[in-house]
Amino acid sequence: MTGFSFLTSLILRLLLVCIIETSGVQFGVHRVFTAINGRPMSLFTSLRYLVALHQHKHFGRAADACHITQPALSNAIRALEEEYGTTIVKRGRNFERFTPEGERILASALRVLREQEVLMQDIQSSVEHPVGRLILGAVPSVVPVAARFVGHLQRRYNGISIVLRSMSSPEIEGALENLSIDLALGYTQRLKPRIVEIKAVDQYQERYFLLRRAAQPHRDGLKIVKETIDWQAASHLPLCLLTPEMHNRSIVDHAFQQGGVTVKPIIETNSILTLGLSVIVGDVCSILPSAMVGVLRGYRELEAVPLISPTVLTPIGFMFAFTDRPSQAVRVALDLAKDPEWMAHLASHTGALVGL
Q1: Are β-strands 314-321 and 198-206 bridged in parallel, bridged antiparallel, or unpaired?
Q2: What are the backbone angles phi and psi of residue 166, rounded to the nearest 5°?
Q3: Within the chain, what is the greatest distance between any pair of CA atoms?
Q4: Closest Cα to residue 80, out of 47, 103, 38?
Q5: How many CA atoms within 13 Å lie on the side-chain side of 328?
Q6: Average pLDDT, the chain
Q7: What is the DSSP code (8-state) at residue 219?
Q8: Orientation of helix 43-56 relative to helix 100-124, angle to 10°
């Protein structure tokens, strides 16, 4: 086992050297080896701290996420700067930004950590029992679907640990490209040619409903009513909608435009949850995608009306950076995404919500 561990370590070191050299940042082999062997903290750990700082854009929050003190994280970043002979982070009283050299080092760090994770998963997994970590990003409107998915995945493969993050569409696209997430659930129609090839696995068509309070509470919870309402009629109601920067709002606005109207909501929010709760306690209606309507099915005082003219169908799917060597966690997640049992479960909580 000792010989195998040494070989694994050597492969990782050589991989690190190759990636750093091809990134355009000139570091010597001796410095890289010293960073791994000559410090109490491994280089991989320091690179994880660097990635955490990138994710949180704040020294204190990044330190909390890494379960260390802020001085420890700052010292690790300074050690990297000394090791590589360049400033990585622009500091004022707080974190400001990564320097151009820091951005290149960060890009290398993300690739190195991904390769390390893939190799570790290969070593620790068997065909029947995959082991590893999966980071899944999801746009807010599909988080309920993503939560169901990770529950199914963990139940089937208990060796997989999962991080589920709610992220905007631009955040997801950037994270897929820089490899800081493994998989994403979101709007596949936004996919465009990128430096990294992004593939998609279709899941369902997102439909839209007007959510309103029922005249009388329904017996068995939220009800999908048989009547429909067009977008033009919906525009005359007091509405709570998402804020304009969110992609879901752009879909809703476009539907109103197709219906020949514009709308001015009386409440705007960047929280999907607020769309539902404002209807429960306030004198407003809201427009929700099917996945969120399904979450509210326990509320007897609510009902959802299908929106038509136009009937908006938005494709939702899993997206991932294509590679000929995916991690074990990504491999089994993509297998589950195509599994008939999962697809049947998904159909009962999305789309037209026929069963409600």
Answers
A1: antiparallel
A2: -80, 125
A3: 75
A4: 47
A5: 23
A6: 85
A7: T
A8: 120
Compute the Cα dihedral for 19, 22, 27, 30 and give only its sign: positive
Neighbours of 147 (CB within 10 A): 15
Residue 3: Cβ within 10 Å count: 7
Instruction: Render pLDDT for 150-171 as a digit per residue (tens, 0 to 9).
Output: 999 999 999 999 999 999 999 9
Contact 280, 326 (CB under 8 A): no
Q: What does the H/E/C string look like for 59-122?
A: HHHHHHHHCCCHHHHHHHHHHHHHHHCCCCEEECCCEEEECHHHHHHHHHHHHHHHHHHHHHHH
Is the sign of the CA dihedral 31, 56, 186, 170 positive or negative? negative
Give the pLDDT score at 56. Answer: 81
* pLDDT of res. 342: 97
Kind of pairing, strands 285-289 and 239-242? parallel
How confident is the model at residue 54, as a pLDDT? 84
Using the predicted structure, report yes or no on whether residue 318 has a pLDDT greater than 80.
yes
Give the span between the Cα atoms of 14 and 281, in whole angstroms: 60
- C-alpha–C-alpha distance, residues 133 and 163, integer Å: 8
d(CA 54, CA 98): 8
Q: How many angstroms separate the CA atoms of 138 and 323, rounded?
A: 21
pLDDT confidence bin for 352, thresholds 50/70/90: low
Length of the chain (residues): 356
Question: Which pTM was predicted?
Answer: 0.76
| Closest to 269 in 3D by CA, of 255, 283, 249 | 249
d(CA 43, CA 41): 7
Q: Are the beta carbons of 277 and 201 closer than 8 angstroms?
A: no
| CB proximity list for 189: less than 8 A, separation 6 or greater | 314, 315
H-helix or E-strand spanning residue 275: helix 272-281
